[in-house]
Amino acid sequence: MKDYYAILGIRATAHAAEIKRVYRRLVVQYHPDKNPDPQAHAYMAEINEAYDVLGDPDARAAYDLRRTQGWTDLVATTTAAGQTPPPPRHRDPKYRPRPAPTMSARRQREALMNKCVPYIKWFNYVGLLVTVLFALDYVLPYSVVESEVENYYFQRPGGRGRNLSAVLHLSLTNGDHLKVYDYDGPRPVQARVQYRRTLVYHTAMSLYYQATDFKMGYNYRALALFPIVLLGTSLAAVLRRKNIEFFFNASFVNGLLLVITLWLIL
């Protein structure tokens, strides 16, 4: 049995404070970073082993009992049963091994975002494509279409005490359906109409009906706010795609804006 008192160079009657003080001095003296002697590492292991026993009051009492009566190591029974005793822990917190670093909450959130980004990133690119075509559709020359009115009806807004104009719905023989808001022209008839529409989304921009011109293109008025915001957020997300948190949040926002924009345009 090893003489732990001799290893630390203290008396068997040394108190706990003296044991800790001597142990720290020996650690500084024989630590491999401080002492290049090849035997210092082996001696350092014995110093740690001695302090693990003598620094623990219960372990020290059991060691003193075995030392005076010549008992065998008390862990022999555990080892014979096939169980490996747990590795000794330093009593001094300063020299205890640090726990393995764990993933921070921020890194866990970024890992989850990285898994979702491949599925939602397309909202940004599709939103950018849709809005760029929406802008080009406004500046490109319009096509002129002529057709016959097949059917029509009025949709009058509800609300008591309001003087609101009706919405005229025109169903044409070519399959198009036109909505004229705030219609104040003559009584509709099944006559020939001429209207101008965009090339990409076929948005009606103006209507010539019964010798009256009606301005349309409602998507390019107040409702254009949604495509404009979608264009800005999609462009910002594509340019800042390396910022995973910004790109992830922008993808969700653009997904919602894309649904609204497509509902308005198509």
Automatic annotation (TrEMBL):
Record has Chaperone as a keyword: yes
The J domain, residue ranges: 3-67
UniProt keyword list: Chaperone, Membrane, Transmembrane, Transmembrane helix
Transmembrane spans: 122-140, 218-239, 246-265
Region described as Disordered: spans on this chain: 78-105
Organism ancestry: Bacteria, Pseudomonadati, Bacteroidota, Cytophagia, Cytophagales
GO molecular function: misfolded protein binding; protein-folding chaperone binding
Domain of life assignment: Bacteria
GO term, biological process aspect, one: ERAD pathway
Record has Disulfide bond as a keyword: no
SMART domains named among the record's database cross-references: DnaJ
InterPro entries xrefs: DnaJ_domain, Hsp70_co-chaperone_J-domain, J_dom_sf
Annotated protein name in UniProt: DnaJ domain-containing protein
One Pfam entry name: DnaJ
